[in-house]
User: Fold this.
Amino acid sequence: MKLQKNTSIALCSVLEAASDPGRQVSAADIASKFGVSPHHLGKVLRQLGRAGILDSARGVGGGYRFSGNAKRLTLMDVIDLFESISAMPAESGGKEYTTDVGRAIARVLSEIDETATATFRSISVDTMLKLIERDRRAREARS
Amino acid sequence: MPLRGRREKQHVTDPAAPGSLRVRAIKLEDLDQVIAIDADITGLRKVDYWYELFHRYGTRGLQQRFFLVAESDSDIKGFIVGEVRDWEFGSPPCGWVFGISVRGDARLAGVGSRLLEAVCECFRRAGVDKVRTLLARDNHLVMSFFRSQGMMAAPFIALERDLD
Assistant:
C-alpha cells in the first residue's frame, strides 16, 4: 500500500524527532534528510504541533522536539491526522456496491482495511525506533 | 545436538533480573492465581480448561511444551504457555506462544518481556530458532506488546468460515 506524501513526511518527521527527544531538530534538516520541500514540510510540522506530537521553538537554534509518548503513540495516530487509509475507493457509496458483485468486492477490501489498520495501530513510535536500530545494526553487521 | 524430546526440568530463572521477579515452570499450587488472572482479563473463569492445560503443558517436563509463571513475593504476576510444533502449516519446527497474560496491577514493569524471553530461551534449547503467535486483529494491547518485542507479521494468513 502507498501512503500519501504528507503522511509519509509526518511519519519520517515524528521518528526523526523521537529518535532523540532531547534534541531540537530543524525543519531544514528534516527537509534535507528526507528530500522534501521545506514549504510542504512546514505545513506537516504545524499539523503535528497542533496535535501535540511535536513542540516547536522559534528563533536561532529553534526547531522541533518530540513531545508525545513514544510507547503510546502509534503509527495509526499519526496517519489519522493526514488521511483515512482505505482500500475502498472513495466512490464506494456508488451503485455498484449495492449489487452482489459490489458487496463481495467491498467485503474483500474491508478485510484489507482491517488488516492494515490493525498493523498500524499495533506499532508504536518506540517499537519503530527499535526496528530502525535493529535494521541499522544488521546492515552494519553485513558490511 | 537438539535437546527437543529429552526430559529436563524447566530452569529459566535469570539471577540478573530486576527486583525479585522469578520466571519458573508452573506448579499445581499456582493454578488458582493463574485462573484468577485469566478470569480478570477475559471475564470467564475457566477452571477445567486451565487444569487440563496444566496437565498437558505443566507436568510432563518435556522439552516441547512450556507453561511458565512469573513470581514475585509468592504472588503470580503473569504466565505464558508455549510449545514447539513440528511442520504445522507446512512450517519447519518453531515455537508457538499460545497464551500470555500479566496481572493488571503488574503491567508496565517488564513482566511480559521476562516471560517471553524465558519461553524463547526454552524454545532455543529445544533446537528451534523462530517464535510465532496468533492473536485477534482487534487485540491492540497484546499485539502492541508482541510488536514491541520485535515480532513482525509471519508469512501466513489465518482463514476461517462458518460451519453451516
User: Anything to note?
Assistant: Chain B has one domain: 22-148. Chain B has a mean pLDDT of 86. Residues 22-148 of chain B form a domain with the Aminopeptidase fold (CATH 3.40.630.30). Chain B touches chain A through ten residues (CB under 8 Å).
